[in-house]
Task: inverse folding
């Protein structure tokens, strides 16, 4: 796991005397400990301080901004904390912010309750004052309400931590491009300067000739070692070992260049393979399974998003991949979509051990590439697409239900996933097309739509969600309002 932590900051004031403040601090530390012990938070929650002054909040915000390990602040008011003293700090906060509206005691104690109890336990009062100032400042934030020992509440807090880590990851993400976008394609284009301003991505290009140079320096022993690993991890379903060895050579070289430059994602294109014998297939698939992001045909946006969703779901089953909507099954009442790519689907989503196969590839005019062939597993998932609307970025998210493919498609030589979309396939297609979503997506079984919404809010970009209650009419209205809102934002 990447080394991130979250800071637990508790609001109060001097009005109540030192005894109350000591109790608040002790309880806050105890709460952080117990929440960590629950095992429901993917990252550590560190109790930092009980804030009583303007200077105190300013100091902690400055520290949080400069602490690389701090991925966000979780704030709560055990007592009342006048919020004007939070302004000078909060206006400078550059980390994700969660207002955790909880309470130390679960229930109201009938006999024990008196005015001392009320002064110590007034989260219902304090959290409203605290909520106002964030609303007044128009701060992006998450509000989570509930008892701090309840499993579902802790799970929500843990779920919020993941997009916050995705935001930290995004801000330092470097993407390596081999070749430009596919000629004449519009949706994979975008403003790389705007992407860096909003999302932090450093998207730059390296010549394919450089990759070929690095490939030529890969030793036979290195290829042997990777072949052993392939044989263990996958089913070797081909006799064309040379083709597989070529993919191993490409994987080692791509990984070497990515690691040397600190890049966590890459894109390439079949239109620019000068000096290469095959389009990387197995090589790209195996790299994705290690957490690297990828986008085909020069799609650096989807490459970056794949890496980010993989970072967000770190430590989970890790079913996240580059995906493309390919073809439909339009049988009435049983409408399905088939997702695949010419090669590059991540085996982290495979239902069974993936098979290494070698087949002809009609596109790119190169030798037959080795690739992993498998079926994606069934289960709920999302597909996300980041598009450049000109002046702003739109993140589109669609809820899916992946199913076991209803036919085995023996002549299809690539990895495939089949899904139903909500509210139904045809409405989802109309909505997706209306909103301008791409054919390339990131498909994830681990990341939820709510987490993508949180991430979009943290990055200050538009978020459009196609879910079970979406209609074309409601979506068109949303898009109309978003267009207006983002003009003035
Ligand atoms: Mn494609």
Result:
């Amino acid at each position: 796991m990447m080394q991130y932590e979250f800071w637990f900051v508790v609001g109060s004031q001097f009005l109540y005397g030192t005894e109350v403040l000591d109790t608040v601090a002790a309880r806050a530390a105890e709460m952080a400990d117990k929440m960590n012990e629950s095992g429901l938070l993917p990252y550590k929650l560190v109790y930092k301080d009980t804030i009583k002054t303007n200077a105190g909040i300013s100091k902690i915000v400055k520290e949080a901004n400069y602490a690389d390990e701090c991925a966000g602040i979780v704030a709560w008011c055990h007592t009342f904390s006048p919020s004007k003293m939070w302004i000078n700090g909060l206006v400078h906060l550059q980390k994700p912010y969660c207002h955790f509206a909880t309470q130390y005691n679960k229930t109201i104690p009938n006999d024990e309750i008196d005015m001392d109890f009320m002064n110590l336990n007034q989260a219902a009062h304090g959290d409203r004052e605290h909520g106002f100032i964030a609303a007044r400042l128009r701060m992006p934030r998450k509000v989570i309400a509930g008892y701090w020992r309840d499993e579902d509440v802790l799970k929500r807090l843990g779920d919020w931590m993941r997009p916050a880590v995705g935001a930290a990851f995004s801000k330092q993400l470097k993407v390596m491009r081999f070749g430009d976008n596919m000629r004449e394609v519009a949706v994979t284009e975008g403003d790389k300067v705007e992407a860096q301003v909003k999302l932090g991505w450093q998207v730059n290009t390296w010549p394919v000739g450089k990759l070929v140079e690095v490939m030529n320096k890969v030793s036979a022993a290195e290829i042997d070692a990777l072949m052993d690993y392939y044989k263990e991890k996958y089913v070797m379903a081909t006799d064309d070992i040379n083709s597989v060895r070529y993919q191993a050579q490409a994987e080692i070289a791509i990984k070497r260049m990515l690691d040397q430059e600190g890049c966590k994602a890459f894109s390439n294109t079949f239109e620019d393979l000068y000096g290469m014998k095959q389009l990387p297939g197995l090589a790209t698939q195996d790299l994705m399974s290690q957490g690297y992001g990828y986008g085909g045909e020069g799609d650096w946006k989807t490459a970056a998003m794949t890496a980010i969703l993989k970072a967000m779901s770190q430590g989970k089953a890790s079913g996240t991949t580059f995906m493309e909507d390919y073809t439909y099954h339009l049988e009435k009442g049983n409408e399905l979509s088939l997702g695949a790519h010419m090669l590059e689907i991540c085996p982290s989503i495979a239902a069974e051990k993936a098979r290494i196969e070698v087949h002809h590839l009609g596109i790119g005019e190169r030798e037959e590439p080795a690739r992993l062939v498998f079926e994606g597993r069934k289960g709920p998932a999302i597909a996300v697409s980041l598009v450049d609307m000109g002046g702003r970025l739109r993140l589109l998210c669609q809820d899916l239900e992946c199913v076991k493919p209803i036919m085995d498609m023996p002549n299809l030589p690539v990895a495939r996933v089949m899904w139903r979309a909500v509210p139904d396939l045809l409405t989802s297609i109309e909505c997706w097309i209306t909103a301008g979503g791409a054919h390339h997506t990131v498909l994830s079984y681990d990341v939820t739509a709510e987490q993508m919404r949180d991430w979009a809010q943290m990055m200050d970009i538009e978020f459009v969600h196609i879910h079970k209650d979406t209609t074309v009419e409601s979506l068109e209205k949303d898009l109309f309002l978003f267009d207006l809102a983002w003009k003035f934002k």
